[in-house]
Each structure stands twice: as C-alpha cells, then as structure tokens.
Amino acid sequence: MTATNTALHDPRLDDSEFEYAGFWERFLATLMDGLLSLIVFAPLIYWEYVQMGQYSIDEMPWMTVPEAISTVLGAVVVIAFWVKKGATPGKMLFGLQVRDAKTGKMVSIGQGLLRYIGYYASAIVFCLGYIWAGFDKHKQGWHDKIASTVVVKRIR
C-alpha cells in the first residue's frame, strides 16, 4: 500500500477505501478481545488455578500443561481470525481489519505468526511497541512493522 496520506484503497473489495486505524480504536478492540477471551477461557483458567493451589510455590512447575494449552490455543485462534476473517472479534466490532501493508490483501499464516510473536516484542519494553502505533505515520505498532501489516478501517 503506497498511500501518501492515511487513506488506502483495496482493489479486491469493490471500491471501498480504507484508512489506518488509530491507537484508541485499536486499544478498545484489544480490550474487547481480552474480555471475550476471559469469558471463553474462564473454565480453563479456573481449573488451572485450582490445580496450582495444591502445590507449594517451590513444587510448582514453571509452565503447567493448562498454561501451555491456553497459550498455544490462544495464538492459534488469534492467527486463524487474522488469516480467515481479517480481524479478531474485538476488531470486527469496531470495523477494523488487519491487512498486508504492501498489497492490502489478507495476511498470510506466516505474517499472522510473525505479528503474534511481535506482540511480545511490542510489550517487552514498557509496551512501547503498542504505543508506537499512536505516533507512526501508518499507525503501525512494532508487531505490525515486524509482520509488514497494517490495521485499517473502511471509510466508504
């Protein structure tokens, strides 16, 4: 996508135009995703903490089986939403989509995986990678830059 301003055009989707999604829209969409995830995964989280209560802190393994399952399952679900639907449920609520930064097309599995891994890079230094999106010309966080993605919303 070679836009000089914040408007994008995706030739695959009729004559719709897009603009880069702002920091606060993305932030609220992420909060919604977190809330939905909490509701869906609450039984697993509850079971996990009940199991942990049976061990002293010295006996507790670094990563329990339920933690590993929820981490991998969470990543698979998020990446699948990006690849198949262009957005997670929270982003869908706000009319946002994750797209390839160069072509405007849906992201590939590889881009989804890179973007997900990029979340950790974005969070590791005081969440500066997420905050970066508020100041970047294309509204990209570090995870977007790593995966060559943008988050857009339809304006027409």
In a nutshell, what does this entry contain?
The chain is built from 6 helices and 4 strands. By secondary structure, it is an alpha+beta fold.
Mind sketching the topology for me?
Blueprint: E1 7-9, E2 17-20, H1 23-52, H2 65-84, H3 89-93, E3 96-100, H4 109-124, H5 128-131, H6 142-147, E4 149-154
Antiparallel strand pairs: 1-2, 2-4, 3-4
Helix pairs in contact: 1-2, 2-4
Number of discrete domains: 1
Low-confidence stretches: 1-6, 10-15
Helical content (DSSP H or I, runs of 4+): 40-55%
Order of strands, widest sheet: 1-2-4-3
* Beta-strand residue percentage: 5-15%
Write down the Rg. 18 Å
State the distance separating the first and last CA atoms.
Answer: 17 Å
Envelope shape: elongated
In total, the number of strands is 4
Summed up, the helix count is 6
Instruction: Give the SSE string.
Output: EEHHHEHHHE
Largest sheet: 4 strands, antiparallel
Structural class: alpha+beta
Mean pLDDT: 85
Structure overview:
The protein is built from 6 helices and 4 strands, in the order E-E-H-H-H-E-H-H-H-E. Mean pLDDT is 85; it is low at 1-6 and 10-15. The protein starts with 6 loop residues before the first strand and ends with a strand. It is α+β, with helices and mostly antiparallel strands and 156 residues long. Helix 1 runs antiparallel to helix 2 and helix 2 crosses helix 4 (109-124). It has a 4-stranded antiparallel sheet.
